[in-house]
């Protein structure tokens, strides 16, 4: 196992590419791997051209960074599970372009977060974040609600999710990649058990699971148990901790998750991929990122010594 970092920790997703300063920082702080991302479809022409992608790959090589996976942010493929076949076809074209980028970067995985059905309305644009109202008591201000699309039919939606997952897996496999599907809250495949249900339908070893530890914990999963559930299917991990109420994220070591048990579970299933830090720190960022990396490396070393 190696400790990596996400490029968008150092440069907001709202700004997107270029990533050179972020890559410089990640290398300087001692991380071994990095995840890169397509933030908007327009970046395929404005940044992720064949020539620029090759330059990014060469820069990573010089800095000693392995690109652990190439991710696609939801707005870039927002029609992926649309019931409108034209929208879906366009999103699949973007996905295939991203598979080509991943190959050029030397990444073994292509990733996206499972999407929410098109047409769901919520008070915020990024629907996975709509899960908590801070007001407590018998008369909270507001209600935790969303509006489903008219004539919402979950069986139809699920069949569509299965179908498009098969297509993205086929595209990934054709480029020598595995699909690294990630779960968040309020999406079609939000957690470990729903991924396993999807896997039972797709039945393709090129379909892998990206476990975001923070999002799993927010959904009240016990992370070591979840790790055992996806043995043989776990291909990537995003690393966050949770606060004392498990209603928000924290940096590893500053929250409630037991990282010793998490690493013991990972060793037990033979996981040998990356754990990529996705923990934002705006104050003393470099120092805190270094402390977090060292903390995770220490937890891993202790788990390895206790398992011998």
Helix-strand category = alpha/beta
* CATH-defined superfamily: Divalent-metal-dependent TIM barrel enzymes
CATH architecture verdict = Alpha-Beta Barrel
Strand arrangement in the largest pleated sheet: 1-2-3-4-5-6-7-10
Q: Give the overall average pLDDT.
A: 94
How many individual helices? 10
Uncertain segments are: none
Radius of gyration (CA) equals 19 Å
Helical content (DSSP H or I, runs of 4+): 40-55%
The overall number of domains is 1
Main pleated sheet: 8 strands, parallel, barrel
Give a description of the structure:
The structure is a single chain. The longest helix is centred in the last third of the chain and has 23 residues. With 308 residues, the chain is α/β, with parallel strands linked by helices. The chain has an eight-stranded parallel barrel, surrounded by six helices. The chain has a two-stranded antiparallel sheet with strand order 8-9. The relative contact order is 0.13. The protein has one domain: TIM Barrel (Alpha-Beta Barrel). It contains ten helices and ten strands.
Describe the secondary-structure layout:
Layout: E1 2-6, H1 20-28, E2 33-38, H2 43-46, H3 50-62, E3 66-72, H4 85-105, E4 109-113, H5 154-174, E5 178-182, H6 192-202, E6 207-212, H7 213-218, H8 223-229, E7 234-239, E8 241-242, E9 249-250, H9 259-269, E10 274-277, H10 285-307
Parallel strand pairs: 1-2, 1-10, 2-3, 3-4, 4-5, 5-6, 6-7, 7-10
Antiparallel strand pairs: 8-9
Helix pairs in contact: 4-5, 8-9, 9-10
Q: What distinguishing features does this structure have?
A:
308 residues; alpha/beta; TIM Barrel; 8-stranded parallel barrel; two-stranded antiparallel ribbon; 41% helix
